[in-house]
Task: inverse folding
């Protein structure tokens, strides 16, 4: 078993289909970490296998691009049992997927699992609303929530390292 405390920082963002929120979170975190000089591995996945191998939703790509992040080359993938040991932290974008991630966790899981918005003071228990059935403004709102949470994550990881809890 791999002990998360002995690993380098590695972060996985998870939503349902891995074509909207989680690739935006991956891209936003990657950019914020790079700008902060924080070394880490970052990826995204979905709890469902609806979009395996597909690129992100074009509206997610456009929203990320408008914020200086390129996610066009990302491809959808499903959460795998080995992710619970590969990553030190797994962040769900909503409570339904948090429940799914937690219920699937193997006994030997070492990743710390949390809801992304729990990182923001005053937003504990909140979700990043799924913009899939909305319009561009819904993607912009999702990006804003994600970006705020990601900035807090990066600061906490810079301060507390891989041992950070959320």
Result:
């Amino acid at each position: 078993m791999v002990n998360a405390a002995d690993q380098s920082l590695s972060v996985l963002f998870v939503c349902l289909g891995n074509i909207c929120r989680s690739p935006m979170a991956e891209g936003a975190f990657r950019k914020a970490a790079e700008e902060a000089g924080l070394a880490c591995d970052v990826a995204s996945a979905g709890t469902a296998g609806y979009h395996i191998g597909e690129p992100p939703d074009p509206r997610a790509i456009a929203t990320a691009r408008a914020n200086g992040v390129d996610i066009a080359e990302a491809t959808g993938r499903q959460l795998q049992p080995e992710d619970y040991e590969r990553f030190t932290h797994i962040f769900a974008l909503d409570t339904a997927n948090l429940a799914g991630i937690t219920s699937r966790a193997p006994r030997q899981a070492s990743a710390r699992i949390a809801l992304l918005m729990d990182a923001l003071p005053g937003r504990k228990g909140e979700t990043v609303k799924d913009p899939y059935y909305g319009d561009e403004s819904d993607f912009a709102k999702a990006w804003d929530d994600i970006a705020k949470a990601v900035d807090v994550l990066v600061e906490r990881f810079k301060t507390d390292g891989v041992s950070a809890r959320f």
